[in-house]
Amino acid sequence: MSISHSLSNALSGLTAASRMAEVVSSNLANALTDGYGRRSLNLSAATIGGRGAGVNIDGVTRMVDRGILADRRLADASLSSHMQTSAFMSRLEDLIGTAGASDSLANRVTAAEQALIDASASPSSDSHLQSVVDRFNQLAGSLNAASDGIQGLRQDADKAISQQVETLNASLRQVAQLNADITMSYNTGNDPSALMDQRQQVVDKIAEIVPIREVDRQGGQVALMTTSGEALIDGPPKQFGFAATNFVTAEMTFDSGGLSGLTLDGAPFAPADGVGRLAGGSLGAAFAMRDQTLTDAQAGLDALARDLVERFQDPAVDPTLAPGDAGLLTDNGAAFDAVNTIGLAGRIQVNIAVDPAQGGALSKIRDGVGALAAGPVGNSQQITAWSDALAEMRNSSLGGQTASASGHAANLMSHIGNARLAAESELSFATGRWDTLRQAELSNGVDSDHELQMLMQIEQAYAANAKLVQTVESMIQTLMEL
Fold first, then answer.
1. How far apart are CA 327 and CA 351, in angstroms?
2. Where are the domains of the chain?
3. Consecutive 10-residue runs of the chain (482 residues): their mean pLDDT?
């Protein structure tokens, strides 16, 4: 009986060593696989009737530091949010222009002011008068292009929201399916580690969109909740909705109902801001960009356009104008209306009365927009008045410090440039934090040196058990020869 027990013990040892070699080979093969959790084989001594009966294989444990994983996922959300914000802010600054750039708004205003100064020195020169018209057309065109560009960025943000909601819903469905598969694997006595690897990768994808916490449930399943307490999946997954907008204008906002927010089961999910307790990741950043940052930039651009229009629409500056008449700069050809400020930067244009290309007369740069007849060619009074109007220190419609027209343009550029720098600084911090947590996570992954040492021990254990089987076989052979 002792010989049969010896053989049974040795065979169980061979089985355990073979299974351990399989686990080690899986670890080594996936040493560089993202989302792979290192496996270890759980063994225990087997006993029958109080006697040793070899070794039991109790299962495979997937080794993951849940604390570091949770922190790294929160860092994923923060990094994704700041990356998206920084990218949008960089594109916004390109639209407005940077200090020293010839096509920046501040330089466009300065160029128009210089053209007026040159024309006032030689009011009889048609080339100087034409230069005034050209410079103001360039200024208006830059404002138009910047306004259109901001709306293009808002539409890109709206599209990003739509894509991320689709990814979020698809990923939640995948987590639900993997939860069911893992439970089935447990119930049938199989190793669910590979399924858990897949689920971790899917959850990581969700963590970039929304900051989440993972909560264990029975049968190896997990529930996912946002850090603000919104359950995404705890059983059946939630299904979020979003209606993308094909064309965004300055007047369209979430508050006005022109742009959509998230829905849940067809009902508004967050009536206040559209995203609610799903903010914090790339999804929240896209909402903030579309509904806050870019609308604020448009408001600043409109305030600059309003300041320019009002400087030239004042009859005290141009006596040829009656109250309510359009001045040198217009709102799409009409006089400025204070109740229609939104989107003004996209509509501002030079009065066609002074533009020969549109049937106007260059002499009206010298005589006034509303002049009925040409005046003395040497009279620079009106041109000087317009130049003085640009240099006048005034408050913008958004308040703040008083400044000239070029000063207001420079202040807007400075504000956006500082916001871009702040976004890059936040991104740098988020990247450093993510790198640190990622390295900590990887340090708990597969250590190839350790696995190779384990492989040597497995080889020795396997050889020893095989030798025992060979010895038992010799003993039995000896008995058979008696």
1. 7
2. 2-64+446-481, 70-434
3. 79 88 87 83 81 81 88 96 97 90 90 96 95 97 97 97 98 97 92 93 97 94 96 95 95 95 93 95 97 96 96 94 94 93 96 95 94 90 95 86 92 94 97 94 84 89 89 86 78
Residue 452, SS3 per DSSP: helix
305: phi then psi, degrees, rounded to nearest 5: -65, -40
Strands (E), 309-462: 329-331, 348-350, 394-396, 399-403
Please state the φ and ψ torsions of residue 402, each to the nearest 5 degrees: -75, 145
Longest dimension (CA), the chain: 140
Give residue for tokens 């990003």.
160
Angle at 146 between CA 140 and CA 150, to 5 degrees: 145
Evaluate whether 75 touches 227 at the Cβ level (below 8 Å).
Answer: no
Query: What are the DSSP E strand ranges found in 154-302?
Result: 212-216, 222-226, 231-233, 240-241, 263-264, 267-268
Q: How many residues does the chain have?
A: 482
* Amino acid symbol at 212: I
Distance CA(478)–CA(1), nearest Å, equals 16
In this structure, what token pair is assigned to residue 100? 């020293």
